[in-house]
Design goal:
The structure holds two protein chains of two kinds.
Chain A (H helix, E strand, L loop, with lengths): L1 H41 L2 H16 L2 H14 L5 H27 L3 H9 L4 H31 L11 H12 L2 H33 L8
Helix pairs in contact in A: 1-4, 1-7, 2-4, 3-4, 4-6, 5-6, 6-8, 7-8
Chain B lengths: L3 H4 L2 H33 L4 H16 L2 H11 L9 H27 L2 H9 L4 H31 L11 H12 L2 H31 L2
Classes of the chains: A mainly alpha, B mainly alpha.
């Protein structure tokens, strides 16, 4: 216990770094994923095909391999981002592939007639998207988005392999000096489990709320 | 860019891919084998059975796979259990996959109408036999597709074994990078190998979905 207390400042920094990476990656991948999903409505086949290939690669290759690529191979091509930069780039590339799918299914859940009705009423496409389509999309994607975010925060542990001092990396360093692996790994797991559990509870709350209030289930509200 | 480093070491990539496949296969089998009784326990009336299963499910799903791998490889020796890298990796990955598999199996078991249990009971069929012969065959339709797609996740997850000294595909690649320093060519190659394995598994998944569609 004394060991955890003395290491606490390092674990606190590591937790904050983990959260910061999570927030930056989630923000960027959600924004890019939403824009790409919206673009598929307007753009032709080529965009759909390139997004499919992109998704096939970034959802099929292990996260660790993509992070190693960003950390080791990109500098070989002249792009040296450092450990945190490489991890943020790698996770953003991966998460974007999933966010595109989440938002595409969200958009598919909005009836086509809504787009046509907005057009018939002379509402410009940007306002129709913002005021009519997106509010419905958000209700559909809230639960899968949080489910993905839960996996996303756990995956940040992999950044320890590219020298990012997130929780697992600090744990590895602490094991090397203290020789108490059992306690330390349990403690690190508890930190991750706490963050993941908050999202897991949010997932249940979102699923319940949106199912009841907006009638996504087959029953009438 | 010079891919000769890849062609000169083809045997190494082959060996790595074989280990990846074996680790993923054993992990899949073990994690399903562990998840099935836990899924049944989770919905038992006795809290002595349902609570441990619920706690396991939560712990397994809330903890990163890497933390479970480190726990199996670096943590267990702390309490006197020493595992070699490969068994430790398989244990860690199986613990991580079991939590999700448990929820898939539970959803499948719950999808079988309650009346089927009642009918089996009315006919005097013991609970275990009813599960094995009546409930599980019907639940398979719901269970198989997510379990099969979980297999591709296990393949991806097996790359983490390289971080506990297992020389599967990623581990072999990291070793080769450290003495040739050609990360670009080597990582592109293993990424392609993973994609080929995954695509093969996705075809298998479609086949299984067809196969179990009509129970």
């Amino acid at each position: 216990m004394d060991m955890i207390v003395s290491l606490w400042p390092r674990f606190l920094d590591a937790t904050l770094l983990t959260l910061a990476i999570f927030v930056v990656v989630s923000f960027m991948s959600t924004t890019i994923g939403l824009l790409a999903a919206l673009a598929t409505i307007a753009a032709g086949r080529w965009l759909a095909v390139s997004l499919a290939i992109y998704g096939w690669i970034f959802r099929g290759v292990p996260e660790l391999v993509i992070l190693l690529f960003c950390y080791l191979a990109l500098p070989q091509l002249g792009l040296d981002l450092g450990p945190v930069g490489a991890a943020v780039l790698g996770f953003t590339l991966i998460s974007t592939a999933y966010e595109v799918e989440i938002f595409k299914s969200g958009l598919a859940g909005v009836h086509r007639g809504q787009f046509e009705a907005a057009r018939a009423l002379g509402i410009p496409l940007p306002s129709a998207l913002r005021r009519i389509v997106l509010p419905q999309v958000i209700r559909i994607v809230a639960t899968p988005w949080i489910t993905y975010a839960t996996g996303s925060i756990k995956r940040i542990s992999i950044a320890s392999a590219v020298a990012v001092t997130e929780i697992m990396q600090v744990t590895k360093q602490a094991i090397a000096v203290s020789h108490q692996p059992f306690t330390l790994i349990l403690f690190a797991s508890a930190l991750y489990a706490t963050m993941a559990s908050i999202l897991m509870v949010a997932e249940i709350v979102a699923a319940r709320r949106f199912k009841q209030r907006f009638g996504l289930s087959t029953e009438l509200p | 860019m010079n891919f000769s480093v890849v062609f000169d070491n083809l045997d190494l990539f082959w060996r790595g891919a074989t280990s990846t496949f074996i680790i993923a296969f054993v992990t899949s089998v073990l994690s399903v084998a562990a998840a099935l009784p836990l899924a049944v326990m989770r919905d038992m009336r006795s809290p002595l059975l349902s609570w441990p299963a619920a706690i396991f499910s939560w712990a397994s799903r809330a903890t990163p796979a890497l933390a479970l791998l480190f726990f199996a490889y670096y943590g267990l020796p702390g309490i006197g259990i020493y595992l070699d890298p490969v068994p430790a990796a398989i244990l860690g990955l199986s613990l991580s996959a079991a939590g999700y598999n448990m929820e898939f199996i539970r959803a499948g078991l719950q999808a079988v109408p309650r009346t089927q249990y009642d009918a089996a009971r009315a006919l005097g069929i013991p609970y275990r036999t009813a599960l094995r012969r009546i409930i599980i065959p019907q639940a398979m339709r719901v269970i198989v597709p997510p379990l099969a797609s979980n297999l591709t996740l296990v393949i991806k997850g097996s790359a983490l074994a390289s971080l506990v000294a297992v020389s599967e595909l990623t581990g072999e690649a990291m070793a080769l990078i450290s003495f040739t320093y050609r990360p670009f060519e080597i990582l592109i190659t293993i990424a392609a190998i993973y994609l080929v394995i995954n695509s093969a598994l996705i075809s298998l998944q479609h086949y299984l979905e067809q196969r179990f569609r009509f129970g």
